[in-house]
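Hi R.,

Here are the chain sequences for the assembly we discussed:
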Amino acid sequence: MNQAIVAFIVGLAFALGLGLGGMTQPQKIVSFLDVTAWDPSLLFVMAGAVGVHGLLYPLVRRRKTPLLESQFHVPEGTCINLQLILGSLIFGIGWGIGGYCPGPAVVSMASGQTTAFVFVAMMLVGMGAYHLAEKFLARQK
Amino acid sequence: MEVVWKPLFGGVLIGLAVTLMLLFNGRVTGISGIINSAIVKPQKDSGWRWSFIAGLVLGGFVLVALNAEFFANTTGRSLTEIAIAGVLVGFGTAMGKGCTSGHGVCGVSRLSIRSIIATVTFIAAGLVTVALVKWFI
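And here is the predicted structure of the full complex:
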């Protein structure tokens, strides 16, 4: 229950950060990716977020456990595989086309815009399609 | 200077938010992963995932109340293009196990080699895509 309250506050703060940073305006993403009409907003958002979290991450990890959980659930893998590269490539293509990443798209549903709902619905379809493909490939082995 | 401090402040807020998630819940705030594990491939004890998503949406309502311009969409992309983009983003983030938040913010912050490579890859793919879209449309 307490973890749910923390997650709720984190979600709320994250959404406000995205909005203030301009990340819920797809044109800002598209312009960040457009060298001919460059908008650096995304760079400053990343700088702020990575600056703060990069500084605080090692401090938090000095603790043996988190405050409300028995252990940290942080991915420790270092394997650079095809899924990582190909998946990121496919994500980047979609990101450039739509100007939405998953977070801003979910936040944007609150505006009632059709584009946000269509994007999120199709994103779920894409995630489902990957899991089906994964299951299919696993069965072939 | 507003073009600098506003995004920077937004970023700082995001950095603090993901640090709280780590400190209290011991979790990485990867939004594509949270959505995936709450809805598409439901995991046990997803209560915190759902309340995170609810927080995101409530944040959206707060933004709408403050200024609807937060959601200005002037890219001119058609609904078909948005739909294609959605499928690619969903498929790609599921395959690459992360998006801008999980790899770009959380992973890069802890200097994860996987996340750094993922972030460089999706930004490069985005740059090429936007150039191609401009060229052909």
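Chain A touches chain B through 112 residues (CB under 8 Å). The two ends of chain A are 41 Å apart (CA to CA).

Let me know if anything looks off.

Best,
T.
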